[in-house]
Amino acid sequence: MSSHSENYDVLVIGSGAAGLTTALALAEHRRVLVLAKGSLDGGSTAWAQGGIAAVLDQGDTFEEHIRDTMIAGAGLNNRATVEYVVGNAPRSIDRLRELGVPFNAEGSALHLTREGGHSHRRIVHVNDATGWAVQEALLKAARASPNITLLPGRSCIDLINGRNAQRFSGAGTVWGVYALDEATGRVEAHVARATVLAAGGAGRVYQFSTAPRGATGDGIAMAWRAGCRVSNMEMMQFHPTCLYHLDVKNFLITEAVRGEGGRLLHPETGHRFMADYDPQRLELAPRDVVARAIDDQIKRFGLDYVHLDISHQPADFVRSHFPTIHEKLCSLGIDMTTQPIPVVPAQHYTCGGVEVDLAARTDLPGLWAAGECTQSGLHGANRLASNSLLECFVFGEAAARDILASWDQLAAPPAIRPWDESRVTDSDEEVVIKQNWTEIRRFMWNYVGIVRTTKRLERAANRIRLLGQEIEDYYGSFRVTTDLIELRNLHQCAELIVRSALQRKESRGLHFTRDYPDTQPVARDTVLIP
Ligand code: FAD
Ligand code: SIN
């Protein structure tokens, strides 16, 4: 085992929008080490399509952005967080422009597109590949900073806070993380005075997800095992329009297609079915409403998919607004300028996560968290489209500010125990990992999906219990690999999701259960305490 303790003040886990924003905001004053699983652009950030919500139009107001966010969130949002994020949005956009993100413009103003649940055009974007442009700009700035070191290919295993990767709860100070070097197979201790978790969401706990392969909830699971509260994990967002294709499983068709006039149609009759579910807002109703409507059509009529059709718009308009999607679909034999696109809902965003306050502080001294792995109070029971990249920028900056302000009170790390490999050997049964991974994702999709019942949730809970023993035995016996680390975390997150879903005795936002179809008068977070 080796230790990288000497050279860095702050350790950031994750190189997406949240992690790199934090690192850049710290770098003038502190030496920062950024660790990432796989490649530096492997998180959800690079995949974001639609854009970033911000009040920039003269006719728009902060109050309306706040209201739209709270309506989408079904009142579960924390109003102070919503005000804080919405109020800081224009500044975040300015900062990204300074970093060179080439947002689409119309004359001297930025072009604003529209997405479901927004009462105004409010989404700044770079064509239909906003996330890629943001990721590139942040990485370029980070690479240029002498105070930032980027270390890809490190799969973090567990936070260091007094014990060596064992399950416990408690409020010990966090001093960094144990991470697997994916190339050498060695486990290193990365030690720092302050640690920031920015490890993204847990989308891959579901069989169908728009999220990248590494979205296995590692940050949430690590924080939980270290003793942090985790909340609202039952609030899993399903995006209504993921491409349905036999070979391409997780290609998103941005909500902006509906924002620019795309219609949802029954694939056989051509009926514009959103009129039956939400006649006022139609395709621009919030995501939970649209996803449930599609799910209902698919189940009621025995369909494989529904159609999303924007072919009534001029072909040049479609091509220029959605160049990436147009090109991808053409490569699959679908011309969206003349044909409808087959779509299905898929898991898309983890609204719940590690509890943080407005300074991005977690429950543990020395540990901050930002981005999709957190529950900051912004999204409530359903995230409003394009509010999540925004949350990464605002909370990444908040974490950096708070770390700098509290620096003198943070103690220097003690000597850290080495990673103990004395009782493990190389695995001789990799098939166990694949089997368990597939099983979890399948029953989560079937039993803990868009429409839930108590019976199905209990079935899922039983399977999670059975798998838990097998996974812990395996973890205790064999050398860690990235697949094993991810399986353990997927299982942990599945357990947190199902436990939270069973606790919520109502339907609200993304959590819809047939057994409790009504919404309780008072909105309460589902807070799990380790
Ligand atoms: P990520 O960008 O996911 O980064 C996570 C980082 O953590 C990665 O670097 C990863 O390698 C690292 N990591 C994870 N586990 C470990 C580990 N064990 N050890 C070390 N490192 C680890 N939001 C919007 O606001 N607008 C949009 O238009 C939009 N479109 C989207 C489209 C798609 C297809 C998807 C999937 C999401 C979209 N979202 C959008 C959501 C948004 O992209 C994410 O919420 C946001 O990018 C999350 O950023 P993050 O920094 O928290 O995490
Ligand atoms: C999309 O482009 O539809 C995704 C937007 C988001 O997830 O916020």
Would you report the number of β strands?
A: 22
What's the CATH class of the largest domain, please?
Alpha Beta
Each distinct ligand: flavin-adenine dinucleotide, succinic acid
Low-confidence stretches: 164-170
Nearest-angstrom radius of gyration?
22 Å
Number of helices: 14
Q: Tell me the span between the first and last alpha carbons.
A: 29 Å
Compact overview of the structure:
The protein is an alpha/beta fold. It has 3 domains: 10-234 and 351-409, FAD/NAD(P)-binding domain, CATH 3.50.50; 237-347, Succinate dehydrogenase/fumarate reductase flavoprotein, catalytic domain (Flavocytochrome C3, Chain A, domain 1); 430-517, Methane Monooxygenase Hydroxylase, Chain G, domain 1 (Up-down Bundle), CATH 1.20.58.
Walkthrough of the structure:
The protein has 530 residues and is α/β, with parallel strands linked by helices. The chain folds into 3 domains: 10-234 and 351-409, FAD/NAD(P)-binding domain (3-Layer(bba) Sandwich), CATH 3.50.50.60; 237-347, Flavocytochrome C3, Chain A, domain 1 (Alpha-Beta Complex); 430-517, Up-down Bundle (Methane Monooxygenase Hydroxylase, Chain G, domain 1). 35% of the residues lie in helices and 15% in strands. The chain has 14 helices and 22 strands. The chain has helices spanning 17-26, 62-72, 79-98, 130-144, 218-226, 256-259, 274-277, 287-301, 315-321, 323-331, 388-405, 431-447, 454-477, 482-503; strands spanning 2-3, 10-13, 32-35, 52-53, 105-106, 109-110, 112-113, 123-124, 148-151, 154-159, 176-181, 187-191, 194-197, 230-231, 236-243, 263-265, 306-309, 341-350, 353-355, 367-369, 374-375, 527-528. A 5-stranded parallel sheet has the order 9-3-2-13-20. A 4-stranded mixed sheet has the order 1-12-11-10. It has a 4-stranded mixed sheet with strand order 21-19-14-22, with helices on one face. Strand 11 and strand 12 form a beta hairpin. Helix 5 (218-226) packs across helix 14 (482-503). The two termini are 29 Å apart. Residues 13-19, 35-38, 42-45, 47-52, 130-131, 154-156, 198-200, 210-211, 214, 218, 252, 349, 371-372, 386-389, 392 line the site of flavin-adenine dinucleotide.
